[in-house]
Amino acid sequence: METILVEMDRINFIVNEFMVFAKPHQLQFSSCNLNEILTSVVKFLEPEATLKNVAINFETSHESMHISGEKKQLKQVFLNLIKNSIEAIPTGGTIYIFFKKSTEKIAFIVKDEGIGMDLDQIKKL
Fold first, then answer.
1. Which residue, 25, 69, 81, 110, is the most exposed by fewest CB within 10 angstroms?
2. Secondary structure letter of residue 124 according to DSSP
3. Name one GO molecular function term (predicted).
4. What percentage of residues in the chain have a pLDDT greater than 70?
């Protein structure tokens, strides 16, 4: 029963995200806590990762990870990148997620043990 409820929440989230992207809207930038956003995305994707025998190793930063951005779009970007990593690991493995902060920027890093991309795919990026 709990699995059904979790999956219903996931479906609801996906439908809501489609609705957001289907209608044009004016971006509303605000201060976004990247640790908070990413934690919610990881929790959302953990059931899918577990089904595929994939562990998600997410290191939250002890530093402030706030940027000005549109929270829903940031969430969608993180969701897409991590979901791609889950799908790139067909036989199970680990995804490593962390932030690297310098004085002027914050890097979001996702490493996985997936099959990688061939040169043609890389050229199309």
1. 25
2. H
3. ATP binding
4. 86
Residue 2 maps to a domain: no
CATH number assigned to the domain comprising residue 79: 3.30.565.10
Report CA-CA distances (Å) from 59 to 13, 35, 84, 98.
24, 9, 19, 5
Weakest mean pLDDT among 6-15, 56-65, 73-82, 104-113: 6-15
Total number of domains in the chain: 1
User: Is residue 69 a contact partner of residue 34, using CB atoms and an 8 Å limit?
Assistant: no
pTM for the model: 0.73
Residue at 7 is within a domain:
no
Mean pLDDT for the chain overall: 83
| Sign of the CA dihedral with 75 first, then 76, 79, and 85 last | negative
